[in-house]
Structure of MYND-type domain-containing protein:
Amino acid sequence: MASIPDDFVVDVHDLAAIILDAHAATETLLPKSQLVEINRGITSPTTLPSHVFAPEWHAAKVGGQKRVAYILKTDSSASERTTIDTFASPQGVKVPGGQELTRRELEDVFWRCKTFNNGYILAYVAQRVLDSLPPTAKLHARTSAKHEVVCKPSDVTVAEIDIVAKEACLILDYEPRPDLGPERVNLSQHMTGFDGSIPWVFLLIGEPKSEDLQADPRVVLDLVTSQLGGRGGGGEVFSLERAFDYHQKVLPKVADELEKYDLSGKIRLSDDALRARGDALVDVVMGRLRKIASGEDNFCRYCGKEEVQARCSKCKKAYFCAPCHTLGWKYHKVWCS
């Protein structure tokens, strides 16, 4: 496969979509799980009895905390992993009010589950990918607010902060075990926002030119905003925003910052298995970038999926999956030409 040319320009928005697409195709926490119910604690769950919910769920009710539970059902014998197109249970998804989920609402749950506890590994992947580019390559970070930064791959800094989620989220995944008994199941639970602050990490792209946040031209890349139930300013399942917009408009919708962020060195994953998975993802993403550099750019600019056939009807350049053009238009229309 061809190498990446020295003058290659990486669109950071495209890179984020590609990283998340590669992650969803390889993640190991919920690979074959489908959504069967959404519960916000207003009514009793119908899929599983409430006594199986984590004690924190019931404590949140007493404290009046905003909360949501996603109940997933796993079939480990399934031949293929779940995608956004197969995430909703074929038997239907039970939701408050009984309404049908829109594609965007289904995406919100899908990515909230897929990015759970993956902030550091995905930031590590983005950092490693950028470090692997030729030093003369360029990064092009463009936001939905029509702000853009062009910089070297070395002009990227890791930022860390403690946040408090505004909504507590419980992901409850079960798998029937008829071999052990008619009502036996394997059960796993994953929680965000029930126990105080959460360490949060993102990348700052561009040269620092001011300590004043409002004057700082750098762009924030946060790959896991969806874990908090949020989206980027252009409707993306990640955030690519000017730092001021990220801290004043995007993150405050879903979390409170406890202090000013700290800048740190490179992310280093100490767990061998986690690092191995991160490095494997880096290899996949670098392979995708090499294909793009060789002219194979028919990937969806919204979800990152490869081998897409339809182009934007206006610019005739960018490719989109059928449902993604509408979802991605808020961002794409700013730069469509």
